[in-house]
Amino acid sequence: MTGRHIGFAFVVLTIAVSSLLGCEKKAPPPPATISGTVDVAPELAKDVTPNYVLFVTVRAADAPPFGPPIAAHRMTDLTFPVQYTVTQKDVFFEGVVLEGKVNVYAKLDKDGNAGPPEPGDLEGEYKGNPVMVGASGVDIVIDKVH
Question: Half-sphere exposure of 84 toward its Cβ, with a 13 Å CA cutoff?
Answer without folding.
Answer: 32
